[in-house]
Amino acid sequence: MTRIYTRTGDRGETGLFSGERVPKDSLRVEAYGTVDELSSWIGYTRSVIEDGEIDGILDKVQRDLFLVGADLATRPKGKARKMVKVTDTMVRNIEEDIDKFDAELTSLSTFIIPVGTKAATALHVARAIARRAERRTVTLARNERLNAQIVPYLNRLSSLLFVLARVVNKRSGIEESRWVSRLP
User: Fold this and answer.
1) What residue ranges do the domains of the chain occupy?
2) Which one, of 57, 6, 28, lies nearest residue 163 by Cα?
3) d(CA 134, CA 137)
4) Kind plus residue range of the DSSP H or E element containing 21
């Protein structure tokens, strides 16, 4: 019988794809752990989405996030890595999705409050997690060498999730709640 637990992490370390053992609270583990959290939240979001087109986009994003996590979980060595990694094509694909869905929306001149349908608010939470994943990755990039496409991918992803949240509300007939400053 194969067990799910290995006991190899009982001393607070985990293994990277590139073979080294690192502390579970290392910058690298924080970055890919936040990407994993994001993918899990997107999975939850998909459970409440009723729009098949948007669900298809989120399915693609979850699959991409496995590559992002794997890329972050592999410390580059002297030679080129022999694995699939985040590419500029992935970044461009997200930009195309942003442009497509943003064309359905009116432009914003103010901030909006992240409310609306369950699906839209779940997308806003995913957007916030994506931004945290990006921040964790930027911190890691200041300390270690990374694939230069990871940060742009995460940056575009948070924009995509914002646009999708707005589209879900619009398609559901929910008016956006615009933020208005209460300062005199």
Assistant:
1) 21-74+84-173
2) 57
3) 5
4) strand 21-23
What's the rounded Cα separation, in Å, for the pair 155 and 145?
Answer: 18
Q: What is the pLDDT of residues 85-141, one digit of tens each?
A: 899 999 999 999 999 999 999 898 889 989 999 999 999 999 999 999 999 999 999
State both tokens at 177. 């709640």
CA distance 68 to 35: 7
Is residue 23 within 8 Å of residue 12, measured between CB atoms? yes
Rounded Cα distance between 102 and 106, Å, is 8
Cβ–Cβ < 8 Å for 153, 86: yes
Cα 89 from Cα 95, distance rounded (Å):
10
The two structure tokens encoding residue 150: 């990871």
The CATH code of the domain at 21-74+84-173 is 1.20.1200.10
